[in-house]
Write a structure and sequence with these properties.
The chain is α/β, with parallel strands linked by helices. The chain has one domain: Rossmann fold (3-Layer(aba) Sandwich). The protein has 11 helices and 7 strands. A 7-stranded parallel beta sheet has the order 3-2-1-4-5-6-7, with helices on both faces. Strand 1, helix 1 and strand 2 form a beta-alpha-beta unit. Helix 3 packs parallel to helix 4 and helix 4 runs parallel beside helix 6. The radius of gyration is 17 Å and the shape is globular. 40% of the residues are buried.
């Protein structure tokens, strides 16, 4: 799939990894749907002015199935299609297990996992009809290895990996690819708020001894959207460049935290 003039919907794309992913796709010539719960600001639109692509904003709650359908329908009405969906929106609500309430647990799953289900279900019919499409689910290394105080977040992100594999099997024959990215310790608003001593302890677990950048995650998102064009954009082995045959996979961008 050539990304130029294709239409990409990135949930939770007003900041952090989602915003970096949106910029990456725009730099490759793709039109964008920016998304968040609140109305998209003019300041955010201004960031994309120099790319020469169409950028629209669609706000709504992905955890609500009807809202997800409305947002997808609106995007298709305005752009003509959704060729790539990036399920990036997510939240944390960290508490130790003994202090976590059922509401604390379910609230995180509702956004991180059910939200991805809602958006994926809404785009699958038009993608399947077009016999092409790419869905990228933003998981986390926490879904691969767990983390103290994040039972809810870990469950949602591990669930997203299983969801990715199952949906990939269902729609592969229809030309739709479904893959996941599992970022590690990535610089963001959330990591900025972590106390310095805790941050140092987290970095100590990373073999590369540094925090990752949102742009490094965005590079992989662009790859999953456009495997044929990989060599022009990313420092990854040529093997990946030839893989139209890639679906149901999870790539960890984590500085080596989960290497086996």
């Amino acid at each position: 799939m050539e990304l130029k003039n294709k239409n990409v919907f990135v949930t939770g794309s007003t900041r952090g990894i989602g915003l970096a992913v949106a910029h990456k796709f725009a730099s490759l010539g793709a039109n964008l749907v920016l998304n968040g719960r609140s109305e998209i600001s003019e300041e955010l639109f201004a960031q994309f002015a120099d790319y020469g692509v169409t950028v629209i904003g669609i706000s709504g709650d992905i955890s609500n199935g009807e809202e997800a359908k409305r947002m997808v329908a609106e995007a298709i009405e305005k752009l003509g299609s959704i060729d790539v969906l990036v399920n990036n929106a997510g939240i944390t609500n960290d508490k130790l297990m003994l202090k976590m309430t059922e509401e604390d647990f379910e609230r995180v799953l509702k956004i991180n996992l059910t939200g991805a289900f809602n958006m994926t279900q809404a785009v699958l019919k038009p993608m399947s009809k077009a016999r092409q499409g790419a869905i990228i689910n933003m998981s986390s290394v926490v879904g691969l290895m767990g983390n103290v105080g994040q039972a809810n977040y870990a469950a949602s992100k591990a669930g997203l990996i299983g969801f990715t594999k199952s949906v990939a099997r269902e729609v592969a024959a229809r030309g739709v690819r479904v893959n996941a990215i599992a970022p590690g310790f990535i610089e963001s608003d959330m990591t900025d708020a972590i106390p310095e001593k805790m941050k140092e302890a987290m970095i100590a677990q990373v073999p590369m001894k540094r925090i990752g950048q949102a742009s490094e995650v965005a590079e992989v998102a662009g790859f999953f959207g456009n495997p044929k064009d990989l060599t022009r954009h990313f420092l990854v082995a040529a093997f990946w460049a030839s893989q139209e045959y890639l679906t149901g996979q999870t790539i960890a961008i984590d500085g080596g935290m989960t290497m086996q």
